[in-house]
Specification:
Order of helices and strands: EEEHEEHHEEHEEHHEHEHHHH
Number of helices: 11
Strand order of the largest sheet: 1-2-3-4-6-8-11
Shape: globular
Strand content: 15-25%
Length: 279
């Protein structure tokens, strides 16, 4: 186990090619302050390029929360909600826009990551929790998860990804508008029913164990194939069918030349589990 800068994260290597990233501010309900954003992005950018990583699990330390969202006290003192002096409205708007853009980029580091990321939600999972989970590839909930797009209750529209990604994940515009406009708290079973989560486990321990099991399954696959599948699904989400088909042609024209294809086919014929080289 290793810790990241300023110990806001713990990084575990529980199995070959599997990394478990754990938010590590349980006393603050794993709320994010400015340095936490920076560390979060740096971790996922690094894991994306690490040939020893093929699948990632993201969870929160402690029993109370995956994350309660923004550390409001820190944000009001020195962060995005702090006073900006006597800037005129246009210049103040530009400063705020730049701050939001920076934080959006940090959250999007999960989506940019070339390795699949499995998010485990438990306990309080408010605001930023949904932004982060929506940027992940797979979401698993503990039965005690209490989830909310909470920003409307603090006087603003969510601006870090929930309003942009959530409709594409669940495909139910009415439900998305209800939870985002009301800030209502919904549970793990509702998350499963609408398609936000792919599984619900009795406890956080069970949910993390299931996420790690799934990560081990992914880590045994061809890393070339897994990387390509994530890339092509994300591209398809953001583009039309014909554009995505053409992109797939170009992608596979390069990557189908990998030795992984031959190894997988031969192993299937010989009825044995294939092994693959690092990326």
């Amino acid at each position: 186990m290793t810790s990241s800068p300023e110990s806001s994260f713990l990084i575990h290597r529980p199995a070959p090619f599997v990394t478990h990233v754990e938010l590590n501010r349980p006393a603050q309900l794993n709320a994010f302050k400015r340095q936490t954003w920076v560390s979060f992005s740096a971790i996922f950018d690094s894991l994306s390029r690490d040939p020893n990583v093929r699948a990632i699990v993201l969870s929160g330390a402690g029993e109370k929360a995956f994350t309660a969202g923004l550390d409001v006290r820190e944000a009001a003192q020195t962060g995005i909600l702090a006073e900006r002096g006597n800037l005129d409205p246009g210049r103040l708007a530009n400063v705020i826009r730049q701050d939001v853009s920076d934080i959006q980029g940090c959250i999007s580091s999960v989506e940019r990551c070339e390795k699949p990321v499995i998010c485990v939600l438990h306990g309080i999972s408010y605001g930023l929790a949904v932004d982060i989970a929506s940027a992940c590839d797979i979401r698993i909930c503990a039965s005690d998860a209490r989830i909310s797009v909470k920003e409307v209750d603090i006087g603003l529209a969510a601006d870090l990804g929930s309003l942009n990604r959530l409709p594409r994940i669940v495909g139910n515009g009415g439900w998305v508008k209800e939870v985002c406009l009301t800030g209502k708290v919904f549970g793990a079973e509702e998350a499963l029913r609408v398609g936000f989560a792919t599984g619900v486990l009795p406890s956080k321990k069970d949910a993390v164990a299931e996420a790690l099991r799934l990560a081990r399954v992914l880590a045994e696959k061809s890393p070339v194939a897994v990387m390509g599948t994530k890339e092509l699904i994300n591209h398809s989400r953001d583009h039309g069918v014909q554009d995505s088909l053409r992109y797939t042609q170009v992608w596979n024209a390069a990557y189908v030349q990998s030795e992984d294809v031959k190894r997988a086919l031969l192993s299937s014929i010989e009825k044995r589990k294939p092994t693959f080289e690092k990326l």
